[in-house]
Every structure is written in C-alpha cells, then in structure tokens.
Amino acid sequence: MDRIDEESQTPAPPVTFTGRKTLVAAAVAVVLIAGALLIRPARTADDARPPEPGERAASAVGMGAPAAAVDLTALVADREKWLAAHPDDDASWAVLGSAYLEHARRTADSGWFPKAEKALKRSLEVRPAEKGNFDAMTGMGALANARRDFGTARKWGELVRAQAPKRWTAYPVLVDAYTGLGDYKGAQKAMELLLDMRPGLAAYVRASQVYRDRGWREDAVVAMEHAAGAAKTPAEKAYALFRLGELSWERGDAGEALRQYEGALRTDPAQAEALGGRARALAALGRGGEAVRDYRMALGRSAVPQLARELGELLDSLGRGQEARAQYDALATMTARDSRNGVDDAVVLGLYEADHGDAAAAVRRLSQEWSRHKSVQVADALGWALHQAGEDAAALEYAKKATEPGLRSADFAYHRAMIEQGLGDEEAARRHLQEAMRTNPHFSPLRGPLAKEALASIAQPAPGGPENIRPTAPWVEPEFPKPAKPTPTPSPKPTGR
C-alpha cells in the first residue's frame, strides 16, 4: 500500500513526440476539423465582428424600428450601388424603399416619400403582390401611414394579412392605420395580435399608443418602458425615451418630460423630435429663451409644421409678434411642400387657420378631412374651427366625439369648454376647464393663460350649498313598526286508505 501511494504521488514523465508522431497528429487534427466543417458549415452568426452600419440599418428597417442616420446613409449607398448592377432584385428595392422612408421620418423631409414610393413600386413590378412580395407591400402600407393616407395603409395591411395571417410585420401598419381612421377597436385588436405574435419594440410602442388613446395612462407608460427595455440600438432607445417624454408632457409633468427628452438626446443627439419636446417642456417651466433656442435648433434639423406652429405661439406669448409671423409663414411653406409630396397636413393647418387665419377655410378643409379620417384629432380640430367660425351648436357635436372615447388631452378639454361657454352652458364649461388645468396646466403658452382667465371669469356656484340643506334638529332614528310574526300553517293530516 505504501508503494502504491508513493507511485501515485510521483509525477508522470512528460509526453514527447518524434517528428513522425508530430506529422501523424497534425494530419489527424486536419481530418477532424474538416469533418466538423462538413457536418456543421460556418454560419454568419458565428462571426464575432459587430454588424456593419448598413447591416444594422437593414435590420432596423426590416423590423420597423428607428435607425441611426449614419447607418441609414450607409445602407442607402450600399443598396443603390447594388441595384445599379442588379436592377431585378426585388428584395433590395424593398429594403431601399424602407430606408428612404426611415430617412423621411428622421428628417421630416417629405421629399424622401416619392423616392420611397418609386423604389417600393419597382420591387412590386419585379415581384408582384400576387406572388407574395410582402416586404414591399408592408413598405407601401407604412408609407401611406407616414403620409396620413390611412385608408390606403389599411388596404395594404389587410392585403398582407389576407395572404399571410401570421406575418407579424403587417400588424404595426394596421394598428397605425386603424388609429388614423378612428377605428380604435380595430387598432386594439390588431395590437393584441401583434403582441401575441412578436412581443418587442414595435409591439410595445403600438400597445402604448392604443392604451394612451383609451385613456389608460399607466398602462401606456408601462408598455413604453417595455419598449425602452426591448431597444437594441441607441436610435431605438432614444425613440422610446422620447415617447416616454411625450406621455409625461401630456399628463402635465413638465419636469419629468424634460428628463426623458434629455435622456433621449444623450442617447441619440440627432433626435430632432426630442429636441422639440425639450423646447416644449422648457417653455412650460418658464425658460422661454432656452425654449426658443431649442425650437429653432429642432426646426433646423427637422422642418415639422407642428413645431413651427408651437414656436410661433411661444413667440406670440413673449410679445415677439414679428418673429411669430415668420414662423407662421414657414408653417405654410412646409405644408405646401408636404402637399406636393402626398402628405396630409390638414389637422395642423386647420388648427393654425382656425386660430390665426381664416376660420371658414379651416372648416372647409377639416370637413373634407373628416369624410376620410374620423379620428379624435380630426374631430377636435373640426369642432374648434366651427367654434371659431361662430357655429357652436355644430361644434359641440364634434367636441364630444373628440373627448368621449377616452383620450385625456388638455387641448381637447379646453376646446370643448370654450364651445360650451359660447352656448351659455357655464357649468359644463367650468367642468372642462378644470379638467384641462388638471390634465396639463401648461398645454399651450397662448391658450393655457386664456383657460385660467376663462375659469376665473365663470360664475362659481352660489355660496352655501350643502349647509343649506342640513336638518335643523339632530337626527333621530325613526321608529318602524315591528313585523308581525307569521302564523304557522298546520300540516295536513294523513288520510287512511
């Protein structure tokens, strides 16, 4: 036993190879590696290198997610070069069209829309919809939504769903289309199917949108937080943070909105939407000079008509009317450009005309829009235009359509209150002005102060109230007659046979 223990503790001599043994071992290793490669060939996923910018952008646009500007530029250059030599590649045409569309979203330059449409139609020429060109069909639906042509977007989305019900990329298109059309039940059903099929950034963003439209604020915030958690790139993360800022702004928390917007800008400094949101929050916090600076920077990056309207009204509230007029002129220029590129700006232009231009023209424009899209945004704008044109009875019907489905908006509540005040219903006007102030007291640098003034001017209920109906004597429990005890009914006697 001692000898065995002693041998077990003695280290084994090192293994040495002769020249011939080394050659044999190397040959065996080569054979084993070759066999392994034959059994399992190398795959792209095995490459440890990070994806190229074009690959990242292609993945993002394929998933309907935001992409970074530099990645989009690389993707567009790559696909354009490829298609110059391979003009019959339908898949690349669809990718290029979606990349153009994402460029339009990031820059708010509607000049990209005709290019996107041309690329997507070329893809459908090479491979028609009847042969299942789902990427191009989905791209056409997304393009129609971006142009606010929601009826066309619904047709494309439903066409994809009819041919491939399990293809999840059709459902973000359908959620946006049904929302724009005012079919909120249809939007919610499409969103629920999307969540079941593909939970992720696109699904959580649409879920938040649907919950917001229903007035379920907490659910909307939770869903958008899930979207931020599902984000895989800085551009996606920044977009989710921007949307969280919008939700905070709508519920009147300007400080929290500012933090979310700044978080988005730290994540993606090119996020022009977050820059415009930060300007809005700064104005609400009384930092007008900084807000004007941010609005101008945002408009320099992304010429959005709504931002021009907001900056014009902020300048008006600061007593800088000439500068405000320049922004209103810029808004008209932007909407004319958008119209040439097939974009429907009827709501923002109608609201501008109702407040600062020709209210009758706003009524005509928005009445046509209502015939196509019966969303709460169109109903609110049309109701407000009718009020400004002096038609309060008709205006109230549209104000009700805007406020009753559930969306909690200080603008909507203010518009309805002013319409009700015009009709002499001060009680209802007071109730909706209070709702506007509770929802977001800083909803507009122009209309917010007007709402406060209107609320102060409305006669309050007469003093007294409940105390005038109090009993003069202490309450005494009344004496009620005691119920009579029921007399038992004798059971029948058994009869003999």
Automatic annotation (TrEMBL):
Transmembrane segments: 22-39
Region feature (Disordered): 457-497
Swiss-Prot/TrEMBL TPR repeat ranges: 238-271
Keywords carried by this UniProt record: Membrane, TPR repeat, Transmembrane, Transmembrane helix
Keyword Membrane carried by entry: yes
Signal peptide range: none
Pro residues bias locations: 481-497
PANTHER family for this protein: SUPPRESSOR OF RPS4-RLD 1, TETRATRICOPEPTIDE-LIKE HELICAL DOMAIN-CONTAINING PROTEIN
Name of this chain's protein: Tetratricopeptide repeat protein
UniProt organism field: Streptomyces spororaveus
